[in-house]
Amino acid sequence: MYRRIVAVVVAASLWSAAAVAADVAGTWNLTVKMSAGTGTPTLVLKQDGETLTGTYTGRFGTSPVKGKLSGNGIEFSSTVTGPMGGSGDVTYQGTVDGASMSGTVSLGPMGDGTFTGTKQ
Length: 120
Prior knowledge:
By secondary structure, the protein is an alpha+beta fold. The chain is 15% helix and 60% strand. The chain has an 8-stranded antiparallel barrel with strand order 1-3-4-5-6-7-8-9.
């Protein structure tokens, strides 16, 4: 009987730890690699459970960010305005592992790439 109780407690602990979203609030230094070159934007995230908001600061200025977490999976996007006044959506999808994240980035018609990030 005692072994069953211990097994249930251990299983419940592991399940609840896996269900908790990663802690991504704070400032992140990103490195984005695309065929057109490499960029180093800064991402500042606020987190409310699985909902993300914040700012993205890159080559073309600062814009708001919205996103979500699902366990260690992260997705966020921002609309950036280029030097000629046109705008486009930038969407990131990846995985968080403690103070680092990595994944893919899509700039729509401008192409796709990869990113890594380190939390300050």
